């Protein structure tokens, strides 16, 4: 588990975020490869042992591959992206900040600074970078204005990743229930029931974490607002 250092050096904050990006990308690659391998061995490998005189339902094999890969991805993401890790990425994103590109003609009468990497920019300030004008959106902003904001988008809100997993898992459960109702073959019914059972357990864990962390973050935000007031 990586650690987070609350420092005031813009250069160190950017280096820390780059390291966390690499670690997060590695975890996502691990999820993708492991889920694809699991689905491959479950859905496609057994087809090789079917005799040429027997019928193979290719549509069901493809559907089973998608169900197993998505279900395994959600379970692995919950394991590799625990609550403490997502909170760490959220703190790093909050320290990094973000910028919003604005039209120079709309802010020509407003003071604009030349962006420098050694300075921590406050919220609302306008800076020039690569002939464009950007507005600081975070409380503290040390990110390069022209950088892509994917990291900040996912982790600016501490519960965003968890919400995405809950929506994805809920959609999978509804689809599997529909397929289970429409299924007429015993082997498809058994496979769907087993996958659905694992998804029920994962959905329960995700929903429990969402409720607990939602209350914790709301209490933390209300306490911070009271201190400020």
Can you offer a commentary on this structure?
- The chain is an alpha+beta fold.
- It has two domains: 10-95 and 149-228, no CATH class; 99-141, no CATH class.
- Helices cover 65% and strands 9% of the residues.
- The chain contains six helices and six strands.
- It has helices at residues 10-48, 58-80, 83-96, 150-155, 160-182, 186-228; strands at 99-102, 112-114, 121-122, 126-129, 132-136, 140-141.
- The strands form two sheets. The protein has a four-stranded mixed sheet with strand order 1-5-4-2, with no helix packed on it.
- Helix 1 packs antiparallel against helix 2 (58-80) and helix 2 runs parallel beside helix 6.
- The radius of gyration is 23 Å and the shape is elongated.
- The protein starts with 9 loop residues before the first helix and ends with a helix.
- Mean pLDDT is 84; it is low at 225-229.
